[in-house]
Amino acid sequence: MGNDGIRTYLVVLGTRPNFVKAAPFLQRAKEHANLRFDLLHTGQHFDDNMSRVFFDEMSIPRPDIHLDIKGQFHTEKIGKTFSALKEVMQSSVYDGIVLFGDVNSTLAGAVAAASTGNRIIHVEAGLRSHDRRMPEEINRVIVDHMSDLLFATEPSAINNLATEGVSSEKVVHVGNIMIESIERYRPQILKSDVLEQLSLIERKYLIATVHRSENTDNPHILERILHILDLLAERQQIVLPLHPGTKRKIHDYNLQSKLNRLHVVEPLGYLEFLKLVISCRGVVTDSGGIQEETTHEGIPCVTLRDNTERPITLDLGSNKLFPVEDLGIDSINDIEEHIYSSTFSKAPIPLWDDGVSARILAHL
Fold first, then answer.
1. Is 186-341 the same fold as 7-176+351-363?
2. How much is the pTM?
3. Mean pLDDT score of the chain, rounded to an integer?
4. 211 classed as catalytic
5. Does residue 4 or residue 226 have the better pLDDT?
6. Fewest Cβ atoms closer than 10 Å to its Cβ: which of 20, 131, 161, 226?
């Protein structure tokens, strides 16, 4: 804490999910005159559709510090990000480093904070898929065990941390900040005219998203996913906002023909994408965050993975796992049955509301 009684924190952001989670937090932080936040963007997501549009439409303050990390390989970029973050943390005095989620920028921020003696504060702590093949799972575990203060979204996350020996004194159940974003920005979401722009009719289309490395790095797996989407598109219009990384892989593997029946669009801003989600009939995805958003909104979700770090979505029945290695023609009927015949009831989840940031800031 400085001589003026103000606590200063460094907020490290790098990707689209980070921006969505940080937006309500940074908005609410303006209410606390005794807290100051320096905002750093690592540049992990750097193009306009994956980065700048979120700052614009969610009124996120412009970063105080912007790293321009270049590198061909993930490990190279993580190393360079770590080095740059370490320099920043050594040049200023912070009361803590605030990290969101499980992306590479989160990991680099935690390692840099530890090496410079800074306290680590992890928002969305304790989530586990129990699948160490996932880079995100490795990131989550390392960051949680390095953190000094861990803000958890749900009881299963708290149980995971307790099982792993993390002191309960460090853990606070504050709820799901992704859901706070939906509630805070719902009026703007509902005003979006994206359905008209894309000539879509409410509840008459599905959304598909594919971006996780375990689904895109292997050409046979990605081809299988696109084949299933192609079969589904015979009976139902499917909108596919195409992640830049997935787009490159499709080109590299020469799978462009698998997109012919899909309604492919560029990555969308947060408001546009959420309007699509809350207006669709169902979602087919490999995303973690979308599993939460669809559960909150009562939309059936098909997850193309054999595990999830959000088990509460399975417990409530809104989400169902479909392991990619098991996907085949027979899967179409099961997927459609879940989307069109699901009987789960939309129920409020404790602390999945618009008060998550307030609870976090109260602890800070």
1. yes
2. 0.92
3. 93
4. yes
5. 226
6. 131
Query: Domain residue spans in the chain?
Result: 7-176+351-363, 186-341
State the pLDDT at residue 49. 47
pLDDT of residue 164: 98
Question: Does 3.40.50.2000 match the CATH number of domain 7-176+351-363?
Answer: yes
pLDDT digits (tens, 9 = 90+) for 278-312: 999 999 999 999 999 999 999 999 999 999 999 99
Return the axis-axis angle of helices 288-297 and 270-279, rounded to nearest 10°. 50
Whether residue 85 is predicted with pLDDT greater than 80 in this model: the reply is: yes
The arithmetic mean of pLDDT across residues 243-256, rounded, is 96
CA distance 273 to 86: 35
Q: How far is CA 298 from CA 111, 182, 216, 295, 339, in A?
A: 38, 13, 28, 5, 11
Which residue is catalytic, options 211, 243, 263, 338?
211
Helix ranges, the chain (H): 16-29, 52-57, 74-91, 104-115, 135-146, 155-163, 177-191, 194-197, 213-216, 219-232, 244-252, 270-279, 288-297, 311-315, 331-341, 356-363
Phi and psi at 233, nearest 5°, equal -70, -10
Share of the chain above pLDDT 90, in %: 83
- Read off φ and ψ for residue 360, nearest 5 degrees: -65, -50
pLDDT(178) > 70 = yes
pLDDT of residue 51: 58
d(CA 283, CA 294): 8
Pick the CATH number of 186-341 from 3.30.457.10, 3.90.320.10, 3.10.20.740, 3.40.50.2000: 3.40.50.2000
3 state SS of 220: helix
Residue 5 region, left (φ>0) first, then alpha (ψ -120 to 50), else beta? left
